[in-house]
Amino acid sequence: LWTGFLGIFHITNDAFEGTEQADGTKDTYANLSAAAGANDGKTVEMLRDYETDKSAVLDENVTVDMNGHTYTNTGSDAAITAASKKHGVEFYEPDLTIRLEGKNTISPSDYSCIYVGAAGTITGPGSLENIGDIVTDANLTFKNTTVKADRLYVEDPGSTDATFAFDKAYVTLSGDRNYETIICSELNLTDCEFLYPASASFNATAKT
Asked: Which phi-psi region, left, alpha or beta, contains residue 29 (left: φ > 0; alpha: ψ -120 to 50)?
């Protein structure tokens, strides 16, 4: 009886599931690196909440469907190096919160360090250090964190659905002085202010 039962249902404690194969089966994986390695260009689905203290090393172009679960990295001082023509980190999960621990760096070779496709929050107590551009197509909030980046901008500067908000956040932008360092239709500040240069301000009309 039990042999027949187990033959019908595949029981696993793995956290990730790959794309359906030709025979109708789906492989499962213990960690994201293994799942991505076997599903380049495809979608990987989370099966449960996942926690690790190790960074995922990804050279593949893979989409992670979080399926309502959480991915928690309890380590700190993470360093992400993006492959050619890929964002360092991009997410499309609505209301996603990225909680930073320690000093974290993202090094893209071509594209932006972070691309945001759905409203989300980047929060401390950790920081993002010396990264490139952060690009959003949705509302992005920085809360109780420190960010050192080149530029912050939205893909469509006229969009009211893509804005930046800072809540008790310290942000340093050091992009090319020939370009605006913030480009968006709306900038919301909570317990924050422009410190340098003294004349710095946000121009809602110019969206910079």
From this structure: beta
Which secondary-structure segment (H or E) carries 6? helix 2-8
Closest CA relative to residue 80, chosen from 52, 109, 51, 53: 109
Tokens of 118: 């759905």
Which residue type occupies 12?
Answer: T
Q: What is the pLDDT of residue 200?
A: 65
Q: Do residues 124 and 104 touch, judged by C-beta distance below 8 A?
A: no
pLDDT, residue 58, reads 66
Residue 30 token pair: 């213990």
Find out whether 71 and 46 touch, Cβ atoms under 8 Å.
yes
Nearest to 124 by CA among 106, 139, 141, 107: 141
Token pair 């799942």 in the structure block, residue:
35
Residue segments in the chain with a per-residue pLDDT below the cut of 50 = 1-10, 178
Strand partners, 189: 166
The percentage of the chain sitting over the pLDDT mark of 70, rounded to a whole number, equals 72
C-alpha 159/C-alpha 202 separation (Å) is: 16
Cα separation, 87 vs 150, in Å, equals: 15
Identify the pLDDT of residue 94.
Answer: 77
pLDDT in tens, 59-103: 667 778 888 787 776 666 666 666 666 677 777 777 878 888 788
Question: What distances in angstroms separate CA 134 from CA 42, 87, 146, 151, one per listed residue?
Answer: 24, 10, 14, 6
